[in-house]
Amino acid sequence: MSENTSKDKTDDKVNNNVCENETSPVQNELNNKLKNRVKNYIKKLEDTGSVTTKDESEKMEIETFKQLYKPKLEGNQESYEKIPKFYFKLPRSDEVLAQKLREETRAQFLQKKSKELLDNSELKHLWSLLEKSNANYTPSSNDELTIDYMQYRKIRDEAGPKYRPYFTAEVFGRLQAAEGGFGKVRGVSLFNYVMRRVWLQQTRIGLSLYDVTGQGYLTEHDLESYIAELVPSLAALDGLDSSFSSFYVCTAARKFLFFLDPLRVGRVRIRDVLSCSFLDDLLELREEDLPMELQEQNWFSAASALRVYGQYLNLDRDHNGMLSINELAGYGSGTLTRAFLQRVFQQCLTYDGEMDYKTYLDLVLALENRKQPAALAYLFRVLDINSQGYLDAFTLNYFFKAIQEQMVAHGAEPVNFDDVKDEIFDMIRPEHPSRITLQDLVRSGHGHTAVSILLELHGFWAYENREALAAAGDHS
After folding, report:
1. CA nearest 444: which of 434, 431, 459, 429?
2. Which of the 8 DSSP states describes residue 175?
3. Which pairs with CB-CB distance under 8 Å and at least 24 residues apart come from 338-345?
4. Which stretches are tagged as biased composition: Basic and acidic residues (predicted)?
């Protein structure tokens, strides 16, 4: 027992010495004074035999805390002068010299980052090192090239310092986990990872050149400038008429803004542009022999852009370059309800009660991508007539009444609203039994069906006859 007590005291003494060595002399002196003060106070209590009350104990604890932490709270005022300036305001439009300096500095920085990337010859060298790492592998054999961690490190050391960022332990672990975790990674997977990372870094540098403010965002004008300079390198757009180029650039840039700018602030993050698939779709047009079927499915293809712009021109019956509510009523199957169209013109930006091409593009993207959260958010804002953040039975009835009117106009018997309302609520299963929020629509996975029932007669008809349509599809 005595040995343990002696050992504890020795440990406490060592710990105290360590703590004292880590603190400043001034702090040590203060700590010693506080310790002596507490010891004297405790001795006084023992000698007098009195018992402290709870209030007295708390008061002493607060005073001790203030004395102990006062220097840390106040800090060393002299050290504040040594903190370097870390925030610089963006130069104003009239500060030409400051803007030029900022642009030149950013250009030098991006050029430096570009030199750190691997070029084609260095990528070829990497592949040759991968092949040499496994003596049993030959290009003509059917065996797959695999490397373990020791070979991985050997390749990294032989390749040189420029390759090190691509050959970390974390990269090997992630690739190994993705392939089953057997202590090896495929050479092809590693090489594809390096190539993909180099491509992303090159693309980020390329996009950053158009980021005028250097804040990591691209405005609509920045995106249009980037796409306009990219168009000549896209082989699938070789036949694009020069008079249509500006409309194509507008059409392409609008998709980035619609899906990546949910708050409609007029800019998108470069990080979001890189992480989405839109840039891949756009750069896919570099292929000369891209099948027409793939081009029609690609929003950025010439065929798709001409289709959208052609629809806009066909709707513009008075040829003034804008669409009125009556002209827009002919969109698609021509069964968009009047109530929905009126809300679109109330909610969206118009000019003297007419819609321009950019606003039309937003509507087209929303209607053609109803399963996407961004499209549902757009349509939800239109449906939310009272701007209350949810759809209730009154709102559903307001829009479905227009569907019933279209049914009567086509000689069909109108469907009872209560039945449709119950089906929509059963389909969405909202958290609140009488309110449907945007989150409910997205979470349910059936939001596109629910909004289609309320927007157009064609959408309601497709829902009502879904079983017959499914059977016809299976038969065909």
Report:
1. 429
2. H
3. 338/402, 339/398, 339/399, 339/401, 339/402, 340/382, 340/383, 340/399, 340/402, 340/454, 340/455, 340/456, 343/382, 343/383, 343/385, 344/382
4. 1-14
- What are the two backbone dihedrals, phi and then psi, of residue 435, each rounded to the nearest 5 degrees? -135, 135
Q: Which amino acid type is present at position 302?
A: A
Hey, what domains does the chain have and what are their CATH numbers? Answer: 96-136+143-209 (no CATH), 211-305 (1.10.238.220), 331-474 (1.10.238.10)
Q: Residues 4-26: what's their mean pLDDT? A: 49
Long-range pairs for 383-389: beta carbons < 8 A, 24 or more residues apart: 383/340, 383/343, 383/451, 383/454, 385/343, 389/437, 389/438
What the block records as the tokens of 293 is: 């079927």
- 8 Å CB contact between 118 and 159: no
**Contact, 330 vs 321, CB < 8 A?**
no
Structure tokens at 309: 């712009």
| Residue 301 burial (10 A CB sphere; 0-12, 13-18, 19+) | buried
Q: Which residues are registered as beta bridge partners of 436? A: 391
Helix, strand, coil fractions of the chain, as percent rounded to 5: 70, 5, 25
Tokens of residue 6, six digits = 């002696």
pLDDT digit string, tens, across residues 138-189: 665 555 788 889 999 999 999 999 999 999 999 999 999 888 767 889 889 9
CB 305 within 8 A of CB 251: yes
Tokens 């081009």 locate to: 295
Instruction: Report the predicted TM-score, pTM, of the whole model to 2 decimal places.
Output: 0.75
d(CA 156, CA 137): 19
* pLDDT level of residue 26 (50, 70, 90 thresholds): low
Positive or negative CA dihedral for 120, 125, 130, 131? positive
* Six-digit token string for 426: 């059963």
Q: In the structure encoding, which two tokens stand for residue 51, read together?
A: 């018992």
Look up tokens 């806009």; give the residue.
312
